[in-house]
Amino acid sequence: MGSKNKLKRFKENENFNNVFQPTREELTSGVFALKGNWKSRIFKNKNPLVLELGCGKGEYTVGLAKRYPDKNFIGIDIKGARFWRGAKTAIEESIDNAKFLRTQIELIEYAFAKSEVDEIWITFPDPQIKYKRTKHRLTNQTFLERYKKILKPGGIVHLKTDSEFMHGYTLGLLHGLGFEIEYANHHVYHLKGSPDEVTNIQTFYEQQYLEQDKAITYIRFKIH
Q1: 3-state SS, one letter per residue, for the chain
Q2: pTM, full prediction
Q3: For residues 100 and 195, what is the distance between their CA atoms, to the nearest angstrom?
């Protein structure tokens, strides 16, 4: 994507009423007014709040919002030029239960209050296979502790990935920590019983993976 296109998208994001872009200082200083108030101030209802972490172009956030109008969805990514597409689609199609937050995922505990979130989706994250990059792996123990802070008791986390390494690593970690694994599938399109929202919503990159005949894996678990 050219720099002109990026600048244009950044500018449009500033004017979208479904995009929120707090500074790092605003979040970490504790003055972010939406923390604990997303349902009342932004969605103006008491419906369950669902986050998509590393939402990319926002296809999953928008797809889930269309499928579940009785839930509130927030796609989170640091790359605003990417989720511009999802934000624009949500506005064009009047999908009022889909919003977007531009921030780093390691700051989510500053953006959401304790037990404010009902579910988390992690879709096709970078598996960070190299050892020195493990601190950025979105299902490592540090991140799981962050999710635990903002999830309600018994809150659900979904992991959908094309990385067999990420799938196996996460399963092993969850077993070791004693977390409840509700469902695990190492090839959602080849094995029966996969949840509809896992197979009927596809990201741009997922479609490319499928053309390459890569297995798409899925885990649903609870953090107690």
Answers
A1: CCHHHHHHHHHHHHHCCCEECCCHHHHHCCCCCCCCCHHHHHHCCCCCEEEEECCCCCHHHHHHHHHCCCCEEEEEECCHHHHHHHHHHHHHCCCCCEEEEECCHHHHHHHCCCCCEEEEEEECCCCCCCHHHHHHCCCCHHHHHHHHHHEEEEEEEEEEECCHHHHHHHHHHHHHHCCEEEEEECCCCCCCCCCHHHHCCCCHHHHHHHHCCCCCEEEEEECC
A2: 0.94
A3: 25
pLDDT tens track for 82-125 = 999 999 999 999 999 999 999 999 999 999 999 999 999 999 99
Residue labelled with tokens 């977390």: 179
Q: For all residues of the chain together, what is the average pLDDT?
A: 93
Tens digit of each residue's pLDDT (9 = 90 or more) over 40-56? 999 999 999 999 999 99
Beta-carbon contacts of residue 38 (< 8 Å; ≥ 6 apart): 49, 72, 74, 112, 116
Two tokens, residue 61: 């956030």
* Domains observed in the chain: 3-222 (3.40.50.150)
Q: Known catalytic residues?
A: 126
Report which of 85, 106, 87 is spatially closest to residue 95, judged by C-alpha positions.
87
Q: Please, which residues bridge with residue 151 across strands?
A: 117
- Residue with token string 């390459």: 212
